TrEMBL record:
It comes from the Bacteria. This is NeuA. One of its GO terms (molecular function) is N-acylneuraminate cytidylyltransferase activity. Pfam families: CTP_transf_3. InterPro entries: CMP-NeuNAc_synthase, Cytidylyl_trans, Nucleotide-diphossugar_trans, PseF. It comes from Kangiella geojedonensis. Gene3D superfamilies: Spore Coat Polysaccharide Biosynthesis Protein SpsA, Chain A.
Amino acid sequence: MRVAVIPARGGSKRIPRKNIKEFFDKPMIAWSIEAARKSQCFERIIVSTDDSEIAEVAKQYGAEVPFMRPKSLSDDYTGTIPVIKQAIEWLADNEQHPSLVCCLYATAPFVEAEDIQRGLIEVTQSGVEYAFTVTSYAFPIQRALRVDKKSGLEMFHPEHFNTRSQDLEEAYHDAGQFYWGTTEAWLAEKVIFGSSSRPVFLPRHRVQDIDTPEDWERAEYLYKAMQK
C-alpha cells in the first residue's frame, strides 16, 4: 500500500491562508492533490491539517482528511518528519500499514505526476530509504559571498577565487516538492538528506519554494512563462 500525505496547517503567517490561496484557477493545495491523483501511485491521498477550511477544500479536490492534526504538531517549529510519522501511526491504529509514504508539499504548484512516478521508481528499485526532488544551484556555491561585521564582503571559500566555474563541483538543493520514504524510515525519523536517499532531478525553472510574498510573485511569473 502506498499513501500520499500532504501537510497543510492553517497558521501560515508570511502568506496568510497560503495553502488555499488561489493560484491562478484553483487553490494552491489543489495542484498537489491533482498531481498525486494523476500519478496513480497511491491507494490513499491524505491531507494532514489542523484547519477545517483547508480540510473542506482538500476534500473538494479529491483528497481525504480522515483525522485532524493535533495542536502539538501544528506550530511554527514542527518539522515534516513528525507530521508524516503521526499520519503513519494513525493509519496503523486503523489497521492500515503502508509500505511507502510520499510527503507531498501543499505549496508545490509545479509538481508533475511524472516526477512523482520517477520518485517511486527510485525508492523501490534502488533499495534506499528516501527519494526526493533536487535541482542545481544557478551559481557555484564554492564562490559564495558573505557580509562581514564591517559590512564588507568576503568569500566563504577564498581558495576558489581563481578557480574556473567549470572546474568546480556542481551542487544541488532540495526542490521542496515531495519526499518518498519507506514506512520504517519515517517511523524511525531517519534523516532525509543522507547517503540512503536518491535524487529526482528537476530543471531550475520548475522549482520555487513559496514562503514569502516575493516567492509567490515569482511563482506566478514562472507559471505564466511556462504557459507561453
